[in-house]
Amino acid sequence: MDKPLISCHLVDSDGSLAETPSEVPKVGILGSGDFARSLATRLVGSGFSVVVGSRNPKRTAGLFPSAAQVTFQEEAVGSPEVIFVAMFREHYSTLCGLSDQLAGKILVDVSNPTEEEHARHHESNAEYLASLFPACTVVKAFNVISAWTLQSGPRDGNRQVPICSDQPEAKRTVLELAQAMGFTPVDMGSLASAREVEAMPLRLLPGWKVPALLALGLFVFFYTYNFIRDVLQPYLQEGKNKFYQLPVSVVNTTLPCVAYVLLSLVYLPGVVAAALQLRRGTKYRRFPDWLGHWLQHRKQIGLLSFFCAALHALYSFCLPLRRSHRYELVNLAVKQVLTNKSHLWIEEEVWRMEIYLSLGVLALGTLSLLAVTSLPSIANSLNWREFSFVQSTLGFVGLALSTVHTLTYGWTRAFEESRYKFYLPPTFTLTLLVPCVVILAKGLFLLPCFSRRLSKIRRGWEKDGAVKFTLPVDHALAQKTSHV
Hints:
alpha/beta, 8-stranded mixed beta sheet, two-stranded antiparallel ribbon, 53% helix, 10% strand
């Protein structure tokens, strides 16, 4: 169990320390499930006296911390002013017999509906609880915190706890309680917001939807493009059956294309934002909504880029293990024997492949640093300059390495007529479009005429910095203006 987060002090809502009364604050819990046990553990570790109400206290007492008192529900609701209701919505009605004892107390609803229940009921669980106990004050809180986070401590999970209630004093009490437990309370307003709060745990990776669809769209496009060039064209024009390449070879050709384009899309919105600031001459105007959303999704896009690059590396290791590859080696050896070639060595190809592989490893290593430092536990250990250096400077280095890696792979293939199948250019030429735009724009912004102006804008300078003030007191003076 973690050390108590408070001993003789409680944290006030404004962050100051307030002396606690000599008596240890008592909190009640109605329910004996997993969440109730984790909640009791966290409260005991935070210095609270906990009393748990259960329908069968003898059976459940051994599951709770020894410092927590487990008793019948009727006895548990007597002394605590704050009582957590840790049970499902359909069991709320079983507490109606305790209405008189619960009158005037603060009920903290921690329940979450299923997706079906959320769609079926027009009122939230907290509002339903408030309708059953009108003499109580209901507060919605802690429903976004998992049982694991409660047991292991808020440092290992999301610290934010949305809280809403119609009674400001009750809300303040729960806010202070959440702070004492080591969490960061977020005031969500009145109890009418409870439905929105209860919908939060139902969302599956909301920040990943657009980046995932983007990555999927790029994968489908490049996979189809590679299929037409590498499989369909040989089958239709040369009668060669290469459909066996679909599971591994075509996928391995597609993955680096997706990873490379996604990485360039991480840094392209920064270029667009800088261009807008240069054009407007100020940083105090909002970016368009599409650009704002794009900037917010850069982390997810970057992680998906690293994921595709890592898969590309694994697929590349698997290429020599394929049976088709072994057959190709045997056929190549037979051709050498038939043509009486004892030594096959092309110096240019050897150097190209060595450089190509080395640059690929360096690019993947750089992407690994970017992915690791994007984790909250690592990012929180870095100051802003260190984080900016890794994510911005090293990220641009990774993009440059990936570009040279791609160019080394292509070499002179873009200028060979045989590489244009169905008049379609090689795939790597398509992937170079967006990254080259980003690299060229970054290079332009490094020029003194642009970099100095951009630096001034980001420090608060504005192109039209003169603000006019009209003085209406005196008619003569009203014609004059002062400039700042």
